[in-house]
């Protein structure tokens, strides 16, 4: 395949303007004895302008790859560009970061060469971003788009192997806001990185800019913080900094006991509840015992949901412990534990109507309430010990 | 490149709280006046804390989608945006006159033009009037009509009432409505007694709130006696004590709010071209102020 004359002409113009271009293994420069051209496989020097144009012609993939990254995408050093390069497994161009650090990041695979990428892009190259499946592909057949232009498709990982005809198809990034607002059961999702994104939709034919915009509506700020993490510049605010910064009704947060912070992290900041990987600790030199999880997105400080919940727990933890005496059979005592566990795991909807062997079965719970609650609807118990 | 950030409260419980923010952001996007437009929230995502880093622009105009100067605009937003040099004194405001201050966000090294809230901008007066027009479906509403501008009011923030009184006074000075009164939920004069404060038979009630929610959709309609139970809904207009109450719901949902956001950014130096005109044109088409063809004069 030969390079489109317009792309070759644009590249030559860029060389004349800037003295040299270099991207993804292609280098073209101007020297005293003529132009020099280099790919990972071949090298030419002392080329006259016409010879350079001829030499570039068979290097279609390199030429259109240059055009896409330098003309369509641009944005050198931006998170947007790095993300789009990650989408097709191109080298990430992270100058500030050490190569080892970047290569060790869970999101980074071995980069592909330009010919390898073009092969993959012709079939569509898939990546996962949380619960999103992103596909980068070439548009070679469109009259309106220059050769080598990429487009992107996006759907739920659960739909990745399905039929597009079964999905609701969108092309406006803003539609992602509505999709991300509710879970499969129509409940509000205040936490965008909760692993509850509904399936059944697809975005197709997005430009690079539109793809990043769409991803940002699904998972706000994840691209920027991922980029910072890759460059080694992720700024983490630990619990104590975040808590001490609060004012107003959240001013109490720094009074939550250390073990309360542990319980909170265990309750909220684990893989089953959030796709973010907790990078913040109790303090810079004081790690929490709870594991930060394996989520794909770095979490750089307690989120607003955690802050709001922490206020409640701070108030609850300020209460005195008491001793209560109540009448329960051994099975009823076990049932209380089963009820708490079922709610904590979000399992109540899965308990079958007639499964009376499960302590959190609704009829079992209603029976316990009928038997053990008094006329005011309170669990019958006697407080026998005032410690204060 | 220049970016606009609309900073709003949002909610962990109510998905509709962010609707006006999204709607106005989209209106501004359509104008193409900014290279980037971003919604940011205290209780949703992207959080104030993370929003600036998602932008490529070096010049960022932050417009708080709040009604008054106070706790959120003076403490929470600047702190969460990491505007280290911020001090409320820099706004040099009497409570309703904050315009903008230029600062740097410490985590990103970008120039942030931190604007006063939409609620205290002069253009907000027009939005209140527009709200009265849209609820009555009368572009000339005013003659024989009283207008009540309703605010939350709170003893914790004296600026909360100032914003309401400021616009009420500006509307009163136009003499468009027979009467214009500022009423409140939590302080005197209270919206519960709305009919006590007006002689006009028709009263348009416009709550100066950003989003419809608990107060505008539950509290205020019940307090005014529009309905026994908000879940049953109410008529517009509703008859209360011999008056007809045209209850408008939150002013923040009015399309013209996008205009106020643009004005705030323009006051802070944003280059917005003819975006204000295009928003006004789009909004007047939306509200269908043009009459049916058969209703031409003389028909």
TrEMBL record, chain A:
<dbReference type="Pfam" id="PF18069">
    <property type="entry name" value="DR2241"/>
</dbReference>
<feature type="domain" description="DR2241 4Fe-4S iron-sulfur cluster binding">
    <location>
        <begin position="231"/>
        <end position="312"/>
    </location>
</feature>
<dbReference type="Pfam" id="PF18009">
    <property type="entry name" value="Fer4_23"/>
</dbReference>
<dbReference type="Pfam" id="PF24039">
    <property type="entry name" value="DUF7348"/>
</dbReference>
<feature type="domain" description="DUF7348">
    <location>
        <begin position="6"/>
        <end position="74"/>
    </location>
</feature>
<feature type="domain" description="DR2241 stabilising">
    <location>
        <begin position="114"/>
        <end position="229"/>
    </location>
</feature>
<protein>
    <submittedName>
        <fullName>Uncharacterized protein</fullName>
    </submittedName>
</protein>
<dbReference type="InterPro" id="IPR041181">
    <property type="entry name" value="DR2241_middle"/>
</dbReference>
<dbReference type="InterPro" id="IPR041346">
    <property type="entry name" value="DR2241_Fer4"/>
</dbReference>
<dbReference type="InterPro" id="IPR055772">
    <property type="entry name" value="DUF7348"/>
</dbReference>
TrEMBL record, chain B:
<dbReference type="InterPro" id="IPR002762">
    <property type="entry name" value="CbiX-like"/>
</dbReference>
<keyword id="KW-0169">Cobalamin biosynthesis</keyword>
<keyword id="KW-0456">Lyase</keyword>
<protein>
    <recommendedName>
        <fullName>Sirohydrochlorin cobaltochelatase</fullName>
    </recommendedName>
</protein>
<keyword id="KW-0479">Metal-binding</keyword>
<dbReference type="Pfam" id="PF01903">
    <property type="entry name" value="CbiX"/>
</dbReference>
<keyword id="KW-0170">Cobalt</keyword>
<dbReference type="GO" id="GO:0046872">
    <property type="term" value="F:metal ion binding"/>
</dbReference>
<dbReference type="GO" id="GO:0009236">
    <property type="term" value="P:cobalamin biosynthetic process"/>
</dbReference>
<dbReference type="GO" id="GO:0016829">
    <property type="term" value="F:lyase activity"/>
</dbReference>
<dbReference type="InterPro" id="IPR050963">
    <property type="entry name" value="Sirohydro_Cobaltochel/CbiX"/>
</dbReference>
